[in-house]
């Protein structure tokens, strides 16, 4: 019994030692890269002007193709996750769930070339990259193809999500301009009357 407790304690300490090694590797590896990249992106936004960036987002939100391709890509490249979702503030209510769908579809493939897009998931991408390197496959080519596929699939998913949202809003009595006509679902409202 004592041997089992000692082994458990040793594994427990080894686990934290391993996590410490991973953390120190991140502090000396990926964290400085992310800080420099975030500084660069913030500098670019500063020089372009936050108002211009906001105007571009409002323009792009008017058209389906721009709304679910260009806007999520630009937002993801300029702002690390989960903050690209704030660009959804320019969208009508019926488009917000679909915009979220488009952003989440492209987040992980973008990490392969742009690690600041979704830094919390960088370990998944690094594992994938390590496997590709062991196989002798080119990383950049794979990640570029993954990004193209993700943008296409994200757009398709977003269009479908928008249609489902519009259907659900109509069914629940919520107007498409975002105003709530009837917060209580139709069936419950009929029972109340």
Number of helices: 8
| Overall strand count | 0
Strand residue content: under 5%
Quaternary form = single chain
Q: What is the global morphology?
A: globular
Unreliable segments of 5+ consecutive residues? 178-193
* Helix-strand topology string: HHHHHHHH
Helix/strand-derived category reads mainly alpha
What does this protein look like?
This protein has one domain. 74% of the residues lie in helices and 0% in strands. It has eight helices and no strands. Helix 2 packs across helix 3. The N and C termini lie far apart (68 Å). Residues 178-193 have low confidence and may be disordered.
Question: What's the short story on this structure?
Answer:
74% of the residues lie in helices and 0% in strands.
Essential attributes:
single chain; 193 residues; disordered C terminus; 0% strand; 74% helix; mainly alpha
Write the layout of secondary structure elements.
Blueprint: H1 2-28, H2 30-48, H3 50-60, H4 64-78, H5 96-111, H6 122-135, H7 139-172, H8 186-192
Helix pairs in contact: 2-3, 4-5, 4-7, 5-7
């Amino acid at each position: 019994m004592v041997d089992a407790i000692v082994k458990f304690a040793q594994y427990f300490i080894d686990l934290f030692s391993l996590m410490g090694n991973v953390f120190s590797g991140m502090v000396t590896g990926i964290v400085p890269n992310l800080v420099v990249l975030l500084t660069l992106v913030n500098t670019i936004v500063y020089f372009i002007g936050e108002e211009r960036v906001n105007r571009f987002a409002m323009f792009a939100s008017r058209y389906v193709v721009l709304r679910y391709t260009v806007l999520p890509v630009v937002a993801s490249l300029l702002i690390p996750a989960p903050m690209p979702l704030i660009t959804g503030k320019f969208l009508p209510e019926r488009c917000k769930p679909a915009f979220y769908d488009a952003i989440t579809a492209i987040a992980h493939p973008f990490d392969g070339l742009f690690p600041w897009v979704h830094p919390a998931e960088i370990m998944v991408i690094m594992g994938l990259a390590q496997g590709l390197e062991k196989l002798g496959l080119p990383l950049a080519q794979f990640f570029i193809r993954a990004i193209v596929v993700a943008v296409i699939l994200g757009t398709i998913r977003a269009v479908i999500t928008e249609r489902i949202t519009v259907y659900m809003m109509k069914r629940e009595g919520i107007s498409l301009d975002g105003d709530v006509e009837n917060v209580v679902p139709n069936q419950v409202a009929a029972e109340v009357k």
